[in-house]
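note to self: dont lose this again. the chain is below, predicted strucutre after it. 91 aa total, dont forget to put it in the shared folder this time
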Amino acid sequence: MTKNDIAKKLALKYNLPVEKTRAVLNDFIEIIGDELSKKNKVQLPGFGTFEAKEINERICRNPRTKEKIVVPSHFAPKFKAGKNLKEKVNE
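---
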């Protein structure tokens, strides 16, 4: 399922234009991204929690040249599913 498919389902469910639901969905995703860029947690009770997790600096090897390289510390998005979502998946 794609973002466009979700927008279409929401449009049908709430009898709204697809363009409006697509815009709302895009804004929702942008808000989550903005909050994560500020290192804030986004909690959606029953669905899950999004957060920016810090990945420590580490030394790796370039598989092509076998040269050691330093991967600097950085943040990566993390999602933890909520109880209701976990139950829904296991129905």
